[in-house]
């Protein structure tokens, strides 16, 4: 279980009983998320619950993880490992965050905690970050955390009927030394990982 406090934001496991909150988040901010994500249909509680339950099952199988980001009692986003391959010791990391919570460094510090867990606690070798070339905020997170851009896959996935390219960024365990000093604030909070 990953637990992290970042100033007034909290990162922790997103569980099936949070389905109402996740559906509310997608109703309020889905149009913004759907510019870059191939997901849809989470505005309804049943769809949100199914999404969370697939990740809960995947967590039990050591195949994926999903965390919510709360400010106070409001769910404002999430971070995830949509895939973890224990045999090859690889994973993919991703995020979604309401525009009202952006610009505070929450995502960078949350992903840094995920990377600490992946490399230090879980013993993974490689973590990938994938984003559309136009998703500048996502690209900046990868750059800040030291990922290397390895290439761009052409027209990989559809978003609202339009095929999107996908940049592949990667970070190897030997390249990870923690959140860069420039990304830490005096009140940044410390990532905590608990088994």
Please describe what this structure looks like:
29% of the residues lie in helices and 35% in strands. The chain is of the alpha+beta class and 195 residues long. Strands 7-8-6-5-4-3-2-1-9 form a 9-stranded mixed sheet, with helices on both faces. A hairpin with a 4-residue loop joins strand 4 and strand 5. The longest helix is centred in the first third of the chain and has 16 residues, at 45-60. The termini are close together.
Helix content: 25-40%
Estimated structural class: alpha+beta
The major pleated sheet works out as: 9 strands, mixed
Q: What count of helical segments does DSSP give?
A: 4
Uncertain residue ranges: 182-195
Distance between the termini: 6 Å
**What percentage of the residues does DSSP assign to strands (E)?**
35-45%
Count of distinct strands: 9
Shape: globular
* H/E series: EEHHEEEHEHEEE
Estimate the mean pLDDT confidence.
Answer: 86
Indicate the radius of gyration in whole angstroms. 16 Å
How is the largest sheet built, in terms of strand order? 7-8-6-5-4-3-2-1-9
Pfam families: Acetyltransf_3
Organism: Nocardioides flavus
InterPro entries: Acyl_CoA_acyltransferase, GNAT_dom, Ribosomal_N-acetyltransferase
Protein name: N-acetyltransferase
């Amino acid at each position: 279980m990953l637990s992290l406090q970042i100033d007034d934001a909290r990162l922790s496991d997103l569980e099936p009983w949070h389905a109402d909150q996740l559906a509310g988040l997608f109703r309020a901010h889905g149009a913004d998320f759907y510019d870059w994500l191939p997901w849809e249909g989470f505005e309804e509680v049943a769809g949100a619950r199914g999404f969370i339950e697939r990740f809960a099952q995947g967590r039990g199988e050591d195949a994926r993880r999903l965390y919510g980001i709360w400010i106070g009692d409001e769910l404002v986003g999430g971070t995830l490992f949509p895939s973890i391959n224990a045999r090859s010791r690889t994973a993919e990391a991703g995020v979604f965050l309401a525009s009202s919570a952006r610009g505070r460094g929450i995502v960078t510090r949350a992903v840094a905690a995920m990377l600490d867990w992946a490399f230090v606690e879980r013993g993974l070798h490689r973590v990938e970050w994938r984003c559309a070339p136009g998703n500048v905020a996502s690209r900046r997170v990868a750059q800040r955390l030291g990922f290397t851009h390895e290439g761009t896959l052409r027209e990989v996935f559809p978003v609202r009927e339009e095929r999107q390219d996908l940049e592949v960024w990667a970070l190897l365990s030997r390249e990870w030394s923690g959140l860069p000093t420039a990304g830490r604030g005096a009140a940044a909070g410390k990532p905590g990982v608990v088994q």
